[in-house]
Design brief:
The protein has helices at residues 16-27, 43-48, 50-68, 83-107, 164-167, 184-196, 215-228, 279-282, 318-332, 361-367, 382-386, 415-427, 432-436, 447-457; strands at 3-12, 32-36, 111-114, 116-121, 124-129, 132-143, 147-149, 161-162, 176-180, 199-203, 231-233, 238-244, 247-252, 258-261, 263-266, 270-272, 305-307, 346-348, 353-358, 372-377, 393-398, 405-412. It is built from 14 helices and 22 strands. Strands 1, 2, 3, 4, 5, 6 and 17 form a seven-stranded mixed β-sheet that branches. A five-stranded parallel β-sheet has the order 8-15-9-10-11. The protein has a five-stranded antiparallel β-sheet with strand order 18-19-22-21-20, with helices on both faces. With 464 residues, the chain is an alpha/beta fold. Helix 1 packs parallel to helix 9 and helix 3 packs across helix 6. Bound molecules: flavin-adenine dinucleotide. Flavin-adenine dinucleotide (FAD) binds at residues 12-18, 35-38, 43-45, 49-50, 53-54, 116-117, 144-147, 164, 185, 273, 276-277, 309-310, 316-319, 321, 349. It is an enzyme of class 1 (oxidoreductase). Keywords: Disulfide bond, FAD, Flavoprotein, NAD, Nucleotide-binding, Oxidoreductase, Redox-active center. This is Dihydrolipoyl dehydrogenase. One of its GO terms (molecular function) is flavin adenine dinucleotide binding. It comes from Vreelandella titanicae.
């Protein structure tokens, strides 16, 4: 017989958005049921996204640094790559974190149910899972069903064609790998496979890597990957892929010749999962792409149903999902809050890393927004030199009328860590002088933002 459960708050989807919302709501006293179709909590980010990719990127960085230090007098023999062990380490990092989440759910009395949910009414969800069909009657709901990788119809169905999920399985290291898409995910995966020994070719439709990011930030990265990879083909599209026994035969839009690759990674973007929920039964609006429409309170067009994370729009990033999860949970618990984040930082964890937050020059160019700019090249950073790298740049964009910082960009080691200070400066409405007058520890890369601020103020006297 079908089981019926009651929930004060139903959270659909156990990724970073969903589990954050569920935990926050439980902490605020709501009776929470969290539904996840996969056996583990954590969603894309923990299982097949941020965490496994960053674990492998760490290994890639160690390999790169071990090779580069030979220029400075320390040489190692060629590294031996034990793929099964590396995969095991990556899986163990993921397992520790996802199991930790299960424990955190238990501590808070969040009831976790496994199964695929679809709405049957504005207060009813049907759940199909290992325990058969269940019915959940809820007072309020938060939808956090995330997104999935986009695939291209012209790609044949062949095990040598990977998406980011299968690429992270690290089944083997192909001799020649073609990466379709020069965005963050494509570049991070390329970095991993290249460090492990693949000859990598990247194909990007637009005229440069990381479309949308400022060109002065991309330039050092592009220079670096052009050295390391077999080819970086910009303004190029793949026109056909034929699966043959000796490899994948790939044709390109701007060339008569085709080339063989052992594997192909399709990293051309992600699409929201909003179309598979039977939204019409609950009455909330989903657009043609699958994004759920929400207001600044994360409310869908049905007042007691909220939506958060990848399924409500770009940028599809875990920290955006967790922020929105907290907002939705607090509103569901009766608090008067809203999604009033001014900025959301973006990071490509490539080597060098690229990070940006707030206004970019590319956006300003498109919209005609006025700005003033100051930058600090890492050539003059003592700390960058001690890392054996001088490739890097920190820059600030300032509103000419109010004098406050409205954007920042960093390329170089640990840019992803450093950008948080700029995000805080923008949220607090700080002026460059306030960054410049904050004493930063020396020698650190964090000084480079303060130096950019000093350059803006015209007070930059001390380099190194
Ligand atoms: P998800 O994490 O997608 O979780 C949604 C969950 O809902 C899933 O577990 C899914 O199984 C479940 N679900 C879906 N439909 C149903 C249903 N009908 N019933 C029950 N359950 C359902 N972001 C960053 O910020 N930093 C990074 O470094 C980063 N790296 C990434 C690397 C890769 C390779 C990829 C693919 C993504 C990366 N991202 C990164 C993006 C990040 O993973 C997502 O933005 C984030 O996971 C979105 O969280 P979410 O909670 O909205 O959805």
């Amino acid at each position: 017989m079908e089981k019926t459960l009651h929930a004060g708050l139903l959270v659909l989807g156990g990724g970073p958005g969903g589990y954050t919302a569920a935990f926050r709501a439980a902490d605020l006293g709501l009776d929470v049921v969290l539904v996840e179709r996969d056996p583990y909590l954590g969603g894309v980010c923990l299982n097949v996204g941020c965490i496994p990719s960053k674990t492998l990127l760490h290994a890639a960085l160690v390999l790169k640094q071990a090779r580069e230090i030979s220029d400075h007098g320390i040489s190692f023999s060629e590294p031996k790559i034990e793929l099964a062990k590396l995969r095991g380490w990556k899986n163990s990092v993921v397992d520790q974190l996802t199991q930790g989440l299960a424990g955190l759910a238990r501590q808070r009395n969040v009831k976790v149910l496994q199964g695929e949910g679809q709405f049957a009414g504005s207060h009813e969800l049907r759940l199909t899972g290992p325990e058969g069909e269940q019915r959940i009657l809820f007072e309020q709901a938060i939808i956090a069903v995330g997104s999935h990788p986009v695939s291209l119809p012209m790609l044949p169905s062949d095990p040598r064609i990977m998406d980011s999920t299968s690429a992270l399985n690290l089944e083997d290291i192909p001799k020649r790998l073609l990466v379709l898409g020069g965005g963050i995910i494509g570049l991070e995966m390329a970095e991993i496979y290249s460090a492990l020994g693949s000859q990598v070719t990247i194909v990007e439709r637009t005229d440069g890597l990381l479309p949308g990011c400022d060109r002065d930030l991309v330039k050092p990265l592009q220079k670096e990957v052009c050295k390391r990879y077999e080819a970086v083909l910009t303004k190029t599209e793949v026109s056909a892929v034929v699966a043959e026994s000796q490899g994948l035969r790939v044709s390109f839009s701007n060339s008569q010749e085709s080339a063989y690759f052992d594997k192909l990674l399709c990293a051309v973007g992600r699409a929201p999962n909003g179309n598979a929920l039977k939204a019409e039964k609950a009455g909330f609006l989903v657009d043609t792409e699958g994004f759920i429409k929400v207001d600044e309170f994360q409310r869908t067009t049905v007042k007691h149903i909220y939506a958060i994370g990848d399924v409500v729009g770009n940028p599809m990033l875990a920290h955006k999902a967790t922020y929105e999860g907290k907002v939705a949970a607090e509103i569901a618990a009766g608090y008067r809050v809203a999604n009033d984040a001014k900025v959301i930082p973006s990071v490509a964890y490539t080597h060098p890393e690229v990070a940006w937050v707030g206004l970019t020059e590319a956006q300003a160019f498109k919209t005609g927004r006025q700005y003033k700019k100051a930058s600090f090249p890492w050539l003059a950073s003592g700390r960058a030199r001690t890392f054996g790298t001088e490739q890097g740049l920190s820059k600030l964009l300032v509103d000419p009328d109010t004098g406050v910082i409205i954007g920042a960009g960093i390329v170089g080691a640990n840019a992803g860590e450093l950008i948080a200070e700029a995000a805080l400066a923008i949220e607090l409405g700080l002026e460059p002088s306030e960054l410049a007058l904050t004493i930063h520890p020396h020698p650190t890369l964090s000084e480079t933002l303060a130096f950019a601020a000093e350059a803006y103020e015209g007070t930059l006297t001390e380099l190194y």
